[in-house]
Amino acid sequence: MHLAQTDLTRAAAEALDDADPLAGFRDRFAGVEDGLLYLDGNSLGRMPRDTPAALARVAEQEWGRGLVGSWASWIDVGTRVGDVIGTGVLGARPGEVLMANTTTVDLYELVVAAADARPGRDVLVCCADDFPTDRYVVAGIAAARGMTVREVPADVDEGLDPADLAAALDERVAVVVLSAVAYRSGALADVPAVTAAARDAGALVVWDLSHAAGAVELDLAANGVDLAVGCTYKYLNGGPGAPAFLYVRGELQESLRQPIWGWFGQRDQFAMGPVYDPVPGIGRFATGTPPVLAAAAVEVGARLVAEAGIDRLAAKGRALTGLLVDLADAHLAPHGVALASPRDAARRGSHVTLAHPHAWQLTQALVDRGVVPDFRTPDRVRLGPAPLYTRFVDVWDAVDRFRLLLEDGGWAAYPEERAPVT
Ligand SMILES: *Cc1c(COP(=O)(O)O)cnc(C)c1O
What we know:
Layout: H1 10-18, E1 37-38, H2 51-63, H3 71-74, H4 77-90, E2 97-99, H5 103-116, E3 123-127, H6 132-145, E4 148-152, H7 162-168, E5 173-179, H8 191-200, E6 204-208, E7 227-230, E8 245-248, H9 250-253, H10 292-308, H11 310-332, E9 338-339, E10 352-355, H12 359-368, E11 371-372, E12 374-376, E13 380-383, H13 392-408
Parallel strand pairs: 1-11, 3-4, 3-5, 5-6, 6-7
Antiparallel strand pairs: 2-8, 7-8, 9-10, 10-13, 12-13
Pyridoxal-5'-phosphate binds near residues 103, 104, 134 and 210.
């Protein structure tokens, strides 16, 4: 259970920062000196200070001077950076993670591969409140294959009820697609229990780790997870449009065939042979030429997360969001702001969502007052304190500005009409 912090003063928040073993990581990010209260690292993580030099090195030396000869070292960038993410962030074993494509494409690959591995089953299960791309990919695959989608309802604040999921599992289900951390509420699914329940029903789960990687302990190998995908530009700080990752449990790799038969998955790639014959390992999930420049930024971001340690990051994430919840209860709830995330820290990722009928206007006003959250439909302000660089005092100051805004009513001057990007 969540124990309310008794001392909610700014000095108490400063004391938490003084005792924070991760405090030193903040200075390894650009722009932290600007004073902006950036609580949107779960949408686009900050830029590590080492990233521009890493990009410049690949551009100027490897591309600029090495030219095509640099492919000797670039050719395995997907598996090399995949291992940094897999072993350093996800608790996977070497050779189980590939950096490639986008989350959307990786999800498509793995859901089709998993459905092919369950012949005779004609149902795909997903969560009705999951991130749009996940639901659309599932719907598209079902339409193309004549399968049926079974959408499990989920509480937008509390996440999926395991009993609802259990009720959706039967011998017709081939694949289950779920987010480990719900993008809207931050609700954390019980990854080992869901994986085991699906396996008992003969189905495979493809986990989307986009809001979980770098924020919570995943221990994919220890938890028996079979398949997963996720993005690298949120808590992994890989930069806008950074390539995604996919995970396939080692024991499963050779038995799965993914639907995009590209030359980067091919055995003896430069033999340019007549038929597709994929390599046995994780490399068979590769498609075409990897984004070498973008990979350099992903590697810097993932190494920082690995260095900080996912256990310490997750613990700090729970402490940051716990402070946020306590402060919101004390100072925002009296103004009609309701918690729209699980109250129990063990059931949350590293973001907290607050509901208010004028959430969109509040979001715009907060940005003008130096607090960056994001707006999520229908009426939510989402605040993501990234444990690598957000201080406890940032959370305190952000809630204080939120309180002042509710008191002075300055949000009412902002348009109700939603912008194209929120
Ligand atoms: C951010 C996110 C994505 C992003 O997909 P892209 O293909 O990288 O744009 C997908 N799914 C979830 C759950 C996300 O949070």
